[in-house]
Amino acid sequence: MNQPNIFLGLLMLVFAIISFDIFLCYTRYMIRYAYLDNFSESFSFAIGPLFYLYIYTSTKGKIRPSQLWHFLPFVLYSIYILLYIVQPTDFKYYAYTSTYFPGLDNKIVYPAFDPDPLLLRANMDALVVLQVLIYIVLSIIKVLRTFKAEKVSVFAKKYKNLSWLRNFTIGLLIILFVFIIVDMKYGSDIGDYLISSCFALLIYGTSINVIRSSDFFTDHLGTAFSGNKKYAKSSLSEEDKVEILRKLKDSMENEKYFKNNMASQSQISRKLLIPAHHISQVINEKLNQSFFEFIASYRIKEAEKILRDPDMNHLTVEEIAEEVGYISKSAFNKTFKKITGKTPSEYRTLC
After folding, report:
1. Mean per-residue pLDDT for 324-335?
2. Smaller CB count within 10 Å for the chain: N or C?
């Protein structure tokens, strides 16, 4: 699984965990399960890093293991919150009821020991706002630079993947503003249902985007159709198609992407921030090829160049196959002969 999907999936999971905590509180189920009170508190510090790393990996590629230091505040707070988690259930029951039902004649229950010696929990809202705001600003910078690199307006709808990253960033920024307003108006945990509602809307929007962009709902179901019928409802203009084809050819000719033996349509989709089904459509309509035929044409062309070069005579056919992106020598031989009409050995002999 690619890294952007991992970080996006974990972010949605964090939203769900926090929302479940809020659900327990507002439905009064927390009275039955008081030992779970505030079990999701530390996850608030995972929102910013997960969001930023999703944006980063979507625009820059894979992260290094050293970049996981972004999760250090989440890890440290998860350890710190244990001072509250291990408190007696009676104390957590009192903490819950005194917050959500302040009008009740609640019995005062004291903690076994100080659950917040550093006052981090007392100032948690401010800390979360500050952290998330920092990561949103960093993410906005990444998105703006990507738009600039692609030479398109930040308001353009030309590429759905880029537009999604922009809209997703705006969505989280709106949630942050809602959180600040709710905290200022209600204080404490009251009003969290509004935050949970925003999470639900963001999860819903993300699900819609995933469904729209999924190959399963586009290319997979479209294989029963062919030619123009398959792309009859495509939103791509001729200008879009020419630009996408230019980017594809540039990636192959200048960056030699075809040499990557793991090259796939989904990978180049993430690399170029172009929906996979748009790549498939452009290659099919403009070149009358499938994606794998498109990749193979560049691989075999590169192999021909190597086979004609006297300085490369020391390379075996298997080594040449690996050089141009093939894992299997037999697959290389089969494709080479299909395109050139000769085996690699025959081609080298004739040269």
Report:
1. 90
2. N
From the list 334, 236, 330, 329, the residue with the least C-alpha distance to 286 is 236
- In order of their start, the domains of the chain are 3-213 (no CATH), 227-350 (1.10.10.60)
| Among 206, 133, 201, CA closest to 173 | 133
Identify the residue whose tokens are 């030699």: 256
Query: What 8-state DSSP symbol labels residue 188?
Result: T
pTM: 0.67
Which of helix, strand or coil describes residue 222? Answer: helix
Q: Does the pLDDT of residue 278 top 80, yes or no?
A: yes
Q: How far is CA 337 from CA 78, 184, 340, in A?
A: 59, 71, 5
Instruction: Give me 305's structure tokens.
Output: 């160049």
SS3 content of the chain, % helix, strand, coil (to 5): 70, 0, 30
Length of the chain: 351
Name, in order, each residue with C-beta under 8 angstroms of 190's C-beta and a sequence gap of 6 or more. 99, 100
- Name the nearest CA neighbour of 325 among 263, 234, 242, 251: 263
In contact, 345 and 337? CB cutoff 8 Å: no
